[in-house]
Amino acid sequence: MSADVKIERYFCNSCGQKTKHFVRAEHETTDHDDGDGTSFTQELAIVECCGCEHLAFVKRTHFSEHWDYNNHPITGEPQMIPLWDEAIYPPVTYRSPPPWFEDLPDPTLRDISQEIYKSLQTESLYLATFGSRTLMDRLIVLTVGDKRNFHNGLDALVDEGKISQHERDTLAPVIEAGHAAAHRGWAPTQVQIKTILDTVEGLIHRLLVLPKLAEELEEAVPSRNGATNVKVGSEVNISNKIAAAPAVVRNVFEELEQRLKTLGDDVSVHRQKHYVAFKRNRNFASVQVYNRKKQVRIYLNIDPDTVDLSRSGVRDVRQVGHYGTGDLELAIKTKKDLDMFVDLFELSYQNS
Questions:
Q1: In angstroms, rounded to a whole number, what is the distance separating the alpha carbons of residues 24 and 55?
Q2: What's the pLDDT tens digit per position in 276-311?
Q3: Of 57, 231, 278, 283, whose CB count within 10 A is highest?
Q4: How would you classify the pairing of strands 78-82 and 276-279?
Q5: Which pLDDT tens digits describe the chain residue by residue (352 residues)?
Q6: How many C-alpha atoms does 110 have within 13 Å on its Cβ side?
Q7: Angle 82-88-89 (CA atoms, 0-180°, nearest 5)?
């Protein structure tokens, strides 16, 4: 390393703390006001973390009248320290999404959570608090249905055994914080928003994420006869589940895949962690494989209100958390079941 490389301390998003950074490039400009003798200085720099090599862009600004006054810690002499406003791009991430974020079994919850974390990067604590309230509202809908207000929703969570009375009491100030942010102009501190998000995300993880991950775990746990659907040590994902599927399930999936792909030349297939997405302009089918239940589930981009829900294997999942997108669920066990749903496959494709 060259001896003249400048090193400064900045917050590193990758390391999650302030670290030493190489200053790889910098530029400074100063504008003077001849009328009152003041000036405005701006420093621009590209910096690289000395540890993880993460790159960032730093902008620092200083108005000539902004100074801090104190005494030198050794000599005791009075000194003036310039006060700089500093901004880092990408913005500083003081709180990262939880590691199970990609396992959220509901795209709406995932979208709301993404917006909350974007608002935290710009210190928009009003939006983050109100967003947390919206997360709770969506969680209630997914677990006990639309109860029209938070009070009824929390009561329903307790009545159906989803949460205890103690947890309901813990959630009360979190809900009230959301009301205060929305209606009374209140914003929490960073410590308080951490408490709010810890509480809400903890509940989402327990009520929605863990049950879905338990279904995935079931596919990997050996049965009493020692058989297992997924190789020991393998990650439980859709590709491994398809590879390890019983012949009847794999045949149904392969036939379904072929039918969906032939709906149009513009169909593309994308294997996600938990499901296979079939896309036109957007996803029109999300397919999951359940080896132990010996069935394939497909979620379609169709308004359930326009479909005869009395048809066998058809379910409205607007208020049910699931991986992938689509409000209409079809449960398929045999190739004959596929013949019953040809019209729905085509409709979802056209809607997308």
A1: 9
A2: 999 999 999 999 998 888 899 999 999 999 999 999
A3: 278
A4: unpaired
A5: 555 789 999 989 888 888 999 999 999 999 988 777 889 999 999 999 999 999 999 999 999 888 888 888 888 888 888 888 888 888 877 788 888 888 888 988 999 999 998 888 888 888 999 899 999 999 999 999 888 888 899 999 999 999 999 999 999 899 899 888 888 888 899 889 999 999 999 999 999 999 888 877 776 666 665 555 555 445 678 888 888 888 999 999 999 999 999 999 999 999 998 899 999 999 999 999 988 888 999 999 999 999 999 999 999 998 888 889 999 999 999 999 999 999 999 999 999 9
A6: 15
A7: 155
The CATH number given to 238-351 is 3.90.1150.30
Instruction: Name the residue among 269, 210, 273 with its Cα closest to residue 238.
Output: 273
Predicted confidence (pLDDT) per residue in 191-247, tens digit: 899 999 999 999 999 999 998 888 777 766 666 655 555 554 456 788 888 888 889
Q: What is the pTM of this model?
A: 0.70
Distance CA 284, CA 297 (A): 14
Cβ burial of 304 (10 Å; 0-12, 13-18, 19+) is middle
* Distance of alpha carbon 5 from alpha carbon 15, whole angstroms: 21
- What DSSP letter does each residue of 291-340 carry, written as one string? TTTTEEEEEES--GGGS-TTSTTEEE-TTS--SSS-SEEEEE-SHHHHHH
Cα end-to-end span (Å), the chain: 54
The full set of domain ranges for the chain reads 7-89, 101-219, 238-351
Structure tokens at 159: 């009545």
CA-to-CA distance for 88 and 91, rounded, in angstroms?
Answer: 5
d(CA 41, CA 31) in angstroms, rounded, equals: 6
Task: Report how far apart, in Å, the C-alpha atoms of 340 and of each of 44, 45, 123, 261, 288 are.
Answer: 63, 62, 52, 18, 19
Give the number of C-alpha atoms closer than 13 A to the C-alpha of residue 348, restricted to the C-beta side.
30
